[in-house]
Design goal:
Layout: E1 7-12, H1 18-29, E2 32-35, H2 36-46, H3 49-59, H4 66-78, H5 80-85, E3 87-90, H6 96-104, E4 111-116, H7 119-127, E5 129-131, E6 138-140, H8 149-154, H9 163-187, E7 191-195, H10 200-223
Parallel strand pairs: 1-3, 1-4, 2-3, 4-7
Antiparallel strand pairs: 5-6
The structure holds BIS(adenosine)-5'-pentaphosphate.
The site of BIS(adenosine)-5'-pentaphosphate (AP5) has 34 residues, from α1, α2, α3, β6 and α10.
């Protein structure tokens, strides 16, 4: 029989490196990357009423209301590709109510990864971040500069990537992180704290080893039956 697909949640402060690690995780594990922030930015780009309401909250660094976010994420998780390949949920849940809602729909992770990065590092990461609208790739002017002049000339910045706004986003994160962690400490094998204040390759090495451990444990359990 085919192995059960992996179900992974990744969380952490703004600019802790979630999106960067998700690129590396999907490359190796083939999971479907579902980023709550990306789904919301797509909704804004589509010009919908939900998008308009979401943008108001995002500009203040506040959580977008559950009635918008929960269904959006649940619908994406329910699609056949997520079910077949497994999923990597990035930036959700950000509150206990979001975690409980998802659990109610039957979605639970095998592992909950929390990227730990000291607050002093985050502002520099945010203000130096750039995005390639063509490939979706995440860059940093100092830590992860674009490969070519052509890419450099088309890079964009997010509307909420200012020093002032990242501080608001960080407050929101700090208010909620403990409540979310405590939910997954009960139901997953363990909530995995990862040191996010090293190179992106070294952060990935820690995540990779946590995922390999998980797969090994599964193998051992299924072998014993
Ligand atoms: P979202 O888009 O999820 O933003 P965020 O949580 O603030 O996280 P970021 O995307 O800013 O950072 P990241 O951790 O992905 O870091 P990255 O890899 O890019 O959410 C935006 C808003 O949407 C929220 O504020 C909220 O309003 C709303 N929202 C989203 N989800 C919601 C939910 N569930 N409920 C309600 N509202 C929701 O890295 C950052 C930079 O650092 C890059 O330049 C990168 O190159 C660099 N970098 C990465 N790793 C390293 C490293 N190891 N060393 C050096 N530099 C590095």
């Amino acid at each position: 029989s085919k192995a059960e697909p992996l179900r992974v949640m990744i969380s952490g402060a703004p600019a802790s490196g979630k999106g960067t690690q998700c690129e590396l995780i999907t490359q190796k594990y083939g999971l479907v990357h579902i980023a709550a922030g990306d789904l919301l930015r797509a909704e804004i780009a589509a010009g919908s009423e939900n998008g308009r309401r979401a943008k108001e909250c995002m500009e203040k660094g506040q959580l977008v209301p559950d009635e918008i976010v929960v269904m959006m994420v649940k619908e994406r998780l329910s699609k056949p590709d997520s079910q077949e390949k497994g999923w990597l949920l990035d930036g959700y849940p950000r509150s206990s109510s979001q975690a409980i809602a998802l659990k109610g729909y039957g979605f639970e992770p095998d592992i909950f990864i929390l990227l730990d990065v000291p607050e002093g590092i985050l502002v520099e990461r945010v203000v130096g971040r750039r995005l390639d609208p063509v490939t979706g790739k995440i860059y940093h002017i100092k830590y992860s500069p674009p490969e070519t002049e052509e890419i450099a000339s088309r890079l964009t910045q997010r509307f909420d990537d200012t020093e002032e706004k990242v501080k608001l986003r960080l407050n929101t994160h700090n208010e909620n992180v403990e409540a979310v962690l405590s939910i997954y400490e009960d139901i997953t094998i363990k909530a995995s704290h990862i040191n996010g204040n090293v190179s992106k390759e070294d952060v990935f090495a820690q995540i990779d080893s946590a995922l390999q451990n998980l797969l090994q444990q599964r193998k051992a359990t299924s072998g014993s039956h």
